[in-house]
Amino acid sequence: MPKKPRIIFMPHANIQYSQLDPARRRWVCEHSYRPLFELVRDGGYRIAFEASGRTLEVMAQEAPEVLALLRELVQSGRIEPVGSPFIHVMLANIPPEIGLDTLRHGLDAWEKYTGVRPAAGWNPECGWASFLPELYREAGFQSLVMDADSFFLSFPEIREATGLSYDVQGHSNKNHLFKIEEYIRDKPEFLRYLTNPSAAPNGLNMIFRSDCMANPMLWYLMGATEGMRSEPVSSGEIRAMLENWKSRIAASGSFIMPYAEDAEYIGTSAYFYVKQFNQARFFEPEPSSVARFRELLDTATSLGYELSTPSEVIENAGPPIENDLIEQIENGVAWHGGTAKAWANTEYSRLLDPVCRSIFDGIALLKKRTGGRKELDDALKALTSAWVSDSRWPPLPTSPGRFNVRETLDDLYRANGFLEKAMEKAGIRELRALYSPELMRTQIRCIEENLMSRKYFGEV
């Protein structure tokens, strides 16, 4: 009897989302994560679930019943945990030393809160730089979810055929990435990367997700038209898409990963109306999307797919494709046909990032001088939190929330304070040529005055 094609659904969660007021984080835990976990529990489904360590921490603090449900599902094997940085950072835009520390911190959080240390990894926004496979390998991951669209657009023939290009000021090409599928749909030399695991030169296993499947599913979850379509994406369109991919799997591999998208779209509108239409609508209740997510899972199983997880796919697929072509993926790109460098080119980043870098240099210098102290580790954690991606996103005419930027500024003050304590305890308080906490405090205050005097998108 032929094996069923496998299919992976992986919602991923980030409680530090831009425009998600900290006061509403418990609401998201209750209205998004809880119904998702209850759906998996009650329906006998199997999925993967990614969450930043900070998301798990907030669940533990504000919605412990939701965390207990996640732990139960992880322990029973119904959910495979997928690890990521403790803080939702753009790994391609920050020093690798910070990236490695926060990846390990994220794994520690999963083990602390669920009892399981993930083998599979997720790279926030799929921002790309050549050092990332080594970073994940060194942190302890066995596999990484990759962005197929960035990979395919590294081939000149696909770039030329689709007419897609990158720009650090561009938000994304999300609604145009179907052009990639149109080009590769009859080309097994490309399809095989979506239907088989592959291995980076350092041995890290990789599986690829693509917006050509995820984006229609997202629009289906939202039930939206908003002038872009005459009718919402229908269940028939989803069924036809999965049927098409079933035949492609039979010809080229063993699985697909159609949904690696934000968990918050299950139960809420999350960021959909900001991202798609520049509308100041954030995290509105969307309970019908929970039922529609169930329909996605049921449609897949009715077509003969087997719900699976990243580690299962890798274990059952045979030898992975040796893939050194990932070295051709353009430095600084990201998912949705966008770029990681876009996050570094907003006016918020241009103010915040130099201060972050100065504090990082101070940590490195004082660590070298003192041999390392607990206060310096605390400073590094606070600085990592200050580098959170969503205090820098999105670009004009929209913006992050004032509260997102406020949290980063508070983290910078905390990091600077820890450096000051480290110098005092090391007896080098007067050696201000190494680092000057007083001067840095005025630097943070300078950008604080600039950033807090602005009007933010959505403010009345």
From TrEMBL:
> Which is a Pfam family this sequence falls into?
Glyco_hydro_57
Q: Which residues form the Glycoside hydrolase family 57 N-terminal domain?
A: 41-154
Protein origin, superkingdom: Bacteria
| UniProt KW Hydrolase keyword | yes
For this UniProt entry, which residues form the secretion signal?
none
Q: Name one GO biological process term.
A: carbohydrate metabolic process
Alphabetized UniProt keyword annotations:
Carbohydrate metabolism, Hydrolase
Q: Which GO terms describe its molecular function?
A: hydrolase activity
Gene3D superfamilies documented for this protein = 3.20.110.20
Question: What family does the entry list?
Answer: Belongs to the glycosyl hydrolase 57 family.
Protein name (record): Glycoside hydrolase family 57
What is the source species? Answer: Victivallis lenta
